[in-house]
Amino acid sequence: MRAQLLDGRTTSKTMLDSVAVGAAEFLRTRGRAPVLATILVGDDPASHTYVRMKVNRCKQVGITSRRIDLTESTSTGDLVRVITELSSDPDVDGILLQHPVPPGVDERAAFEAINPAKDVDGVTRASFAAMAFSADGFSSATPGGIIALLDAYEIPLAGSRAVVVGRSAILGKPVGMLLLERDATVTFCHSKTGDLENHIREADIVVAAAGVPDLIKGDWIKLGAVVVDAGYVDNRGDVEFESAAARSAWITPVPGGVGPMTIATLLAQTLAAAEKRTIVK
Ligand SMILES: Nc1nc(=O)c2c([nH]1)NC[C@@H]1CN(c3ccc(C(=O)N[C@@H](CCC(=O)O)C(=O)O)cc3)C=[N+]21
User: Fold this and answer.
1) What pLDDT does 235 receive?
2) What's the CA gap between 65 and 164, in Å, rounded?
3) Cα separation of 30 and 102, whole Å?
4) Which of 138, 165, 256, 274 is least surrounded by CB atoms within 10 angstroms?
């Protein structure tokens, strides 16, 4: 291996340390901790694990989590009602609806019920627009975490050729917008892209967000490129790690790369939402 690691574990720890300091100060000045509501619909075991990790991290940094678990048979209407209530609840600062929701539920409708001021996971249209226009608002957690990780290692983005593989509403599309806002030349590739290999071969920065383990072969990576692997199927990335690390300058490990940055971004944005919503007494 010749690449250096983009270490999400260490970088996220630094972020979480400062969230803990801010949350303690918030508690001292407002008389309560910041509050993140997490909503999980159905019983997908991986989703349970992710939500548990988020709740545990909240505890560690002094954020109160309010966990709401709903059954697989929850209707769109019921879910929207729950989220609408949290959106106007003065005691709730941030709302996370874990993706994916069960097949019968309209996930977009549920996301849009989140008050943009509490959209600390950056899943609403309002947050997407904020990312696209560098306006006030929250970043999608994984895309925001990716940019924070690249910034921590001072990876230059302006003028670089960035190839994003994947176009989901909360990962591929928004990470492309954030890279574009940082003056990268961005190409989106997806399942209908015929010549993925050729796009990857030209990329200075590869952001893999397809959720297809080992989709991207290590020998496609341009020498000296930066590889960010946001795949998370069974904790396996989208990029063949060993062969990609032999060619790239920087690479994220899976686990220990993008995953911990996602959670740190969520919690940092929860603190920021709490601070914005409240005035010091
Ligand atoms: N509304 C919504 N927002 C999300 O941000 C969101 C989501 N839905 N649905 C699922 C994906 C997945 N996701 C991960 C977060 C952390 C790790 C993570 O920290 N993983 C550890 C490994 C943990 C272990 O060892 O099991 C790591 O990569 O080092 C992974 C995956 C957030 N997601």
Assistant:
1) 82
2) 33
3) 38
4) 256
Q: How far is the CA of 87 from the centre of ligand 1 (A)?
A: 23
Contact 269, 15 (CB under 8 A): no
**Annotated binding-site ranges for NADP(+):** 166-168
Q: Give pLDDT tens digits for 186-221.
A: 999 999 999 999 999 999 999 999 999 999 999 999
Residues 97 and 171 in one domain: no
**Quick check: is 114 in a domain?**
yes
Claim to verify: residue 49 and residue 90 sit in the same structural domain: yes
Q: In sequence order, what are the beta bridge partners of 216? A: 239
Distance CA 60, CA 232 (A): 23
Helical segments of the chain, H only: 8-30, 45-61, 76-88, 107-112, 125-133, 141-152, 172-181, 196-202, 241-245, 258-277
End-to-end CA distance of the chain: 54
Query: 24: which 2 tokens?
Result: 């303690």
Of 7, 93, 119, 121, the catalytic one is: 121
Range of the domain at 33: 26-118
Structure tokens at 160: 């670089």
Q: Which residues contact 118 (CB under 8 A, 6 or more apart)?
A: 86, 87, 92, 93, 94, 95, 273, 277
> Which of 124, 262, 263, 270 to probe ligand 1 with, by most ligand atoms within 8 A of CB?
262
| CATH number of residue 110's parent domain | 3.40.50.10860
Asked whether 128 lines ligand 1 (CB < 6 A), one says no
Coarse DSSP helix, strand, coil percentages of the chain, rounded to the nearest 5 percent:
45, 15, 40
